[in-house]
Design a protein that fits this description.
heterodimer; A: 296 residues; 69% helix; disordered N terminus; B: 163 residues; alpha+beta; 2 domains; 4 helices; 5 strands; elongated; disordered C terminus
Chain lengths: 296, 163
């Protein structure tokens, strides 16, 4: 199967692996336009979450970063000829944000920075830009699963149980999966030092816990193969939706959804970008106006 | 930029991004860097790093005295800054500013120690101290210098020990 991925590569050499994520259709220029538009608005939503934080980054976001992202989005979305400059401005602001936040930046921000970087580098080659954006999803999915396997806290469900004990969002969701006694035992420990064990005996919970890392590790590579791509996109979306039911990181979830849509074969599924960007903007406003929803 | 060079630049960047998480994984396992940080895609692999820190003064007779971090504003602030960076960058965090602030606030001692207890989910699934670092400092002619760093076995938490 690997050979079917690697054949007909237009770019021989050590970096021909880039082409493993090619589209097998002619829609990449439209996907590139859609992803560019989405990223301009995605940065507005993400940066908007920082407003009101009484730290240097919060003040910088309110005075410099957010106005620059809004300017990029307004100009970039209304004038196609100006979009490359707006993407470059968004990339510059995101680079500055990473530097300001160092070492306390979220991986989510690094993913946005990487996608913006590839979009800027590939402005004259949309297909290359989309290949790179697709590779980012493969990298994130595969390594997320591999890291969970190495840390070993999904084998017996301990990590998800700990989150159930300490995070209300997880608890709301896991309460539906765990048996009543086990759920009560875990909630009672409440994540206080010296409590345990967080390992869970409930088979359904343990299977679910292991499906997370197995799913992530296997779906990443499956996205690269033409024959399995459609299935992998659907399964990855299902996985992300189930994770978001607990995590409620809507802004990250929509970014991931947009990047996954870039894999969908034979049509430009990224045309749904206004919906995803709209959800992100709503999540940002809800974060500030309705904190009881616990969106982040 | 020619198409060929552009392709190579993108390929090189992707290759780095493919390999980097493996490097970050080793930084986590060997140097106590937070799995959640440095773009290794290891968020949600284990609980957010948390911990506590104890400051100790050692006098000429070898008597060990717990020191209050609130005894000076500088000590309190450097301690908070160090702990925050320590939980993210692990053993790459520099404890010297804390030691200098300790020596400034408590100059009567000969040596000073900073003990960092990292609390997390142990392999057995308990929330307990999973790693301990003891930084030792002494006064030299050039000022406070680090004398030693050790990693004693993490003490059992009370409930584990009783259990």
């Amino acid at each position: 199967m690997l050979s079917s991925v690697m054949t007909q590569s237009p770019s021989p050499g050590v970096f021909s692996f880039v082409d493993w994520a090619r589209a097998h259709d002619e829609h990449d220029p439209q996907r590139y336009d859609a992803l560019s538009s989405f990223m301009l608005l995605a940065m507005v939503s993400h940066c908007g979450m920082l407003i009101g934080r009484d730290v240097e980054l919060g003040r910088m976001a309110a005075t410099v970063l957010l106005p620059a992202y809004v300017l990029s989005a307004v100009v970039g979305l209304s004038s196609r000829s100006m979009r490359p400059y707006c993407l470059a401005l968004s990339l510059a602001m995101t680079t500055w944000w990473l530097v300001l936040a160092w070492p306390n930046f979220a991986n989510h921000l690094f993913l946005e920075w990487s996608v913006l970087l590839f979009l800027v580098l590939s402005q004259r080659d949309p297909e290359l830009g989309m290949k790179a954006a697709r590779w980012m999803i493969v990298i994130v999915l595969f390594h997320s699963g591999l890291q969970k396997m190495v840390m070993g806290q999904y084998f017996n469900g301990a990590f998800l149980a700990f989150n159930t004990a300490t995070i209300q969002n997880f608890s709301d969701f896991m309460g539906l999966v765990l048996s009543g006694d086990e759920f009560a035992r875990i909630r009672e420990m409440a994540g206080k030092p010296g409590t345990g064990p967080y390992a869970v005996s409930d088979p359904l919970f343990v299977v679910m816990s292991n499906l997370v890392w197995i799913g992530e590790m296997s779906l990443g590579p499956l996205l690269l193969f033409k024959k399995t791509r459609k299935f992998a996109v659907a399964a990855a979306i299902a996985l992300i939706v189930s994770i978001e039911l607990g995590a409620r990181e809507l802004i990250f979830g929509c970014l991931f959804g947009a990047l996954l849509a870039g894999f969908y074969p034979r049509k430009n599924a990224l045309a749904i970008w206004p919906v995803l960007a709209g959800v992100q903007l709503l999540a940002m406003f809800a974060f500030h106006l309705f904190p009881q929803l616990r969106l982040n | 930029m020619t198409p060929r060079i552009r392709h190579k630049v993108v390929g090189l960047l992707l290759a780095v991004l493919i390999i980097w998480p493996l490097v970050q994984q080793q930084l986590v396992l060997r140097y106590r860097v937070s799995p959640w940080k440095l773009a290794g895609w290891a968020m949600y692999t284990t609980v957010m790093p948390r911990g506590n820190m104890a400051l100790t003064g050692i006098d000429a007779s070898g008597r060990r005295v717990p020191l209050d971090a609130r005894s000076s504003a500088e000590l309190f602030s450097t301690r908070s800054d160090f702990m925050s960076v320590r939980l993210m960058l692990g053993l790459f965090a520099d404890p010297l500013p804390v030691a200098r602030a300790m020596a400034g606030a408590h100059p009567a001692y000969q040596k000073w120690e900073i003990t960092v207890n990292e609390v997390g989910l142990s392999r057995r699934g308990w929330l307990e101290t999973i790693h301990q670092t003891v930084y030792s400092f002494k006064m030299t002619s050039t000022g406070v210098e680090q004398a030693n760093v050790s990693y004693p076995a993490a003490p059992l938490t009370r409930k584990r020990a009783e259990g």
